[in-house]
Amino acid sequence: VYKGKLQDGKMVAIKQIDTDGLSNDQILNIKGEIDTMKTLSHSHIVSYLGTLEVPHQICIFLEYCDRGSL
Q: How far apart, in whole angstroms, are the C-alpha atoms of residue 50 and residue 46?
């Protein structure tokens, strides 16, 4: 997981998933989990902000939580 900054200055966590070597079923499972994250809304769960798919990689953008690891 990487720390990033959006153009508006907002800090985000970026999870990068390398899709090389994954089966189509595994990629579909990842996309299903992303769909689930989109629906979650709770003060104790980091917020889903978006996804970027590029060749060989899926990047998931999440709310950034400072003050150590979760």
A: 12
